Give the backbone structure.
Amino acid sequence: MQRKFTLSEMMAVVMIMAVLVSFLIPTLTRSRSSARQAFCASNLRQVQLGWMLYAKSNNRWLPGEKGLSRDHNIKTSPLTGTVATGNHMEDEQVWRCPSDKRTSEYKYSYTLLAKTCMRAKSSCCGVLGPSRIEWFKPDAAILFGEENTDASLPWPFDYVINDPRFTNKDVFGPRHAEQSQGIFLDGHREMVEPADNPWEMSKYDPWVN
């Protein structure tokens, strides 16, 4: 005759399974987070390459904020920007981070550092337009970063993205397990601290002089 499990034995099995699941869930969560971060890093690299291809085709002039979109609006398709219309980056999907929790009407997860649209240092955003690569230190100039998009940082750093560029009080957000990413003009990527303000902090000064 086949032996049946007793209630105590079944409860023991259930408890063991629950313990195993409790160990597995954090591991799976970390793995998923790492995969999203890697996907995001790939996106940033493609955005940087699009900017460099534009500059190569335009006598080393960077496109400025109009490279992003026609209307300078995070709800406007990046396919309207001069980088896309110049056939240098035609995939709208590379602009969206998989960890960006906003709805799909928001087209941008990556924000342009407005300093790379300026000829010289300034305390305000001033006139933003095309700029030459020679004006900047490629290994020190952040081109794009992940701005805070969900007000998750404590005041006074809870500035939510409202346009496609870093200016004034905009700060990096903790999108990837309390970290953020930035891509530099020379193509290298770095993890950056949430609440860092690339507009105001001297370590993000991109200019040669």
About this structure: The chain has one domain: 7-65+92-204. The CA atoms of residues 55 and 62 lie 5 Å apart. The chain has a mean pLDDT of 86.
